[in-house]
Amino acid sequence: SRFGAFGGQYIPESLMDCVSQLLTCFESARSDPSFWEEFRSYYPYMGRPSSLHLAERLTAHAGPKAANIWLKREDLNHTGSHKINNALGQILLAKRLGKTRIIAETGAGQHGVATATVCAKFGMACTIYMGAEDVRRQALNVFRIKLLGASVVSVEAGSRTLRDAVNEAMRSWVVDLDTTHYIIGSAIGPHPFPTIVRTFQSVIGQETKQQFRDLNSHRNKSLPDAAIACVGGGSNATGMFSPFEHDPSVALLGVEAGGSGVKSGKHSATLTGGTHGVLHGVRTYVLQNSHGQIADTHSVSAGLDYPGVGPELSSWKDSGRAKFIAATDADAFEGFRVLSQTEGIIPALETAHAIWGAVGLARELGEGKDIVVCLSGRGDKDVQSVADELPRI
Ligand SMILES: CC/C=C(/N=C/c1c(COP(=O)(O)O)cnc(C)c1O)C(=O)O
Q1: Residue 72 contacts residue 240 (beta carbons within 8 Å)
Q2: Would the pTM count as exceeding 0.95?
Q3: Per residue in 283-323, pLDDT tens?
Q4: Distance from Cα 232 to the centre of ligand 1, integer Å
Q5: Ligand 1: distance of its center to the CA of 221 in Å?
Q6: Tens digits of residue pLDDT in 220-235
Q7: Residue ranges around ligand 1 (CB below 6 Å)
Q8: In terms of C-beta density within 10 A (0-12 exposed, 13-18 middle, 19 or more buried), how is residue 31 classed?
Q9: Model ipTM?
Q10: How far apart (Å, rounded) are the C-alpha atoms in residues 263 and 260?
Q11: Is 153 helix (H, G, I), strand (E, B) or coil?
């Protein structure tokens, strides 16, 4: 349950039974071939495997001596992001646990949509908790969640963003533990949640590894030189990175939300600007003041706007296995514009942070090297807020 000094279960007594029941269920499912057969039987529905392909014009944009940039198209999954991988896996666990009701938190709305989608598919009642600020800025996804038959609870407390949605979801879970499973949307929360989410999301890195080898056998190259992903709670990053963890020749780079700049104090770059702490039941890096008060965060992208991060990424930061940088809001808009206009792919604003990071890394690594980028989601949900930025774009 620990990733170095990180992880654990910092939860009230009232949650212990439910969490240990989940652990038992996960442990048995994980080692049960018929569970994975059932999971893979939904690949046609999810659109797995997602494709991996070279982004020639994005690579050219990075410059004549830049490394090749490869895109792992999690944006083409059903519902438009990597979130479906985890939502589907966890609803199969909920079924095994005999639960009949699902709750979840959401910030960008992608996890909310993915959860509402699998609840419709499996006939379970669904309530999504979402900060009121995110209800406003991701309105398209709120509409989709309701169309899928789920209800949305708009959370007015605190900063009215993802952190507050998680608080509310956890609070409501305690009331209905026996009927309800909480499909947590990122690699956060008390053990076993970070391990569950990473396990389901690791389909991203496993497929990428195989696809890269197959696509590069002619040049006798079996591994990329770097993998890069944006980091909110850390699920698409750990999903892309964990299958490469023990391949030291593959650099791992996470790109966080630098907001108005890490020095400005208005950001969500937890690993870059945070310290060891506890948030939402887990010991990890958090953004907090000297009294341990969790800081308010800012990001143009709702899915990265969170003061915590998964414990596995925290351990990789401290062990040096992965590096983390911050892309500002402006950098993200640049990544958004560049991918749209060089590859015809409109990314989620979250993903745009990784695109910006990939261009910089491609210039750094140089010719003949290869970078795989987790293209975590599509940008339909963001076009309204980007429209306001269009003059800058
Ligand atoms: C679970 C809360 C986060 C959400 N989304 C986060 C997100 C992220 C960041 O989440 P992680 O992969 O968990 O770091 C990256 N890309 C897209 C397209 C996202 O939607 C959500 O509610 O949809």
Answers
A1: yes
A2: yes
A3: 999 999 988 899 999 999 999 999 999 999 999 999 999 99
A4: 6
A5: 31
A6: 999 999 999 999 999 9
A7: 81, 83, 105-112, 162, 185-186, 230-237, 303-304, 348, 350-351, 376-377
A8: exposed
A9: 0.99
A10: 8
A11: strand
